[in-house]
Write a structure and sequence with these properties.
mainly beta, 9 strands, six-stranded antiparallel beta sheet, globular, three-stranded antiparallel beta sheet, Metal Binding Protein, Guanine Nucleotide Exchange Factor, Chain A, about 140 residues, 2 helices
């Protein structure tokens, strides 16, 4: 079985290893680039203070003070925890042109970036709850 990550990522696992570690929904979203249904994610209405982490590897991705209610049905953030926490990739699937967001540490699919977020960045990182963990402060 081949690795599901490129060599630039710090964490490398086979598809079988990821399947053992993740729930079926997490595997579908993070490894097969799926999307959970809008307004169903466990972290959508989370208002606790803390850090949102990668559901695959635990790397810090976003902080609660950068989260906002976009009305889109998915947790939304206007800025990642650091510039090197995530990677952006062009995504032309499903007849759309979007920018995919992945975890820089393990390559897990997180969601997409849209240019309709609040200031000061104007960006909306639209992230699947299934791709996230949460460390409460």
């Amino acid at each position: 079985m081949t690795e599901t990550n490129t060599s630039k990522h710090k964490i490398h696992k086979t598809e079988a290893e990821w399947r053992e570690l993740l729930t079926p929904e997490q595997f579908y979203v993070m490894r097969e680039k799926g999307t959970e249904r809008a307004f169903t994610g466990a972290l959508l209405n989370n208002h606790d203070s803390g850090t949102y982490t990668c559901g695959s590897c635990g790397a810090g991705l976003f902080t609660s003070d950068k989260k906002f209610d976009s009305g889109s049905g998915w947790p939304s953030f206007w800025l990642p925890i650091s510039a090197d926490a995530i990677e952006a990739h062009e995504d032309n699937s499903h007849g759309m042109r979007r920018i995919e967001v992945t975890c820089a540490n393990c390559g897990a699919h997180l969601g997409h970036i849209f240019p309709d977020g609040p200031q000061p960045t104007g960006m909306r990182y639209c992230i699947n709850s299934a791709s996230l963990g949460f460390d409460k402060q």
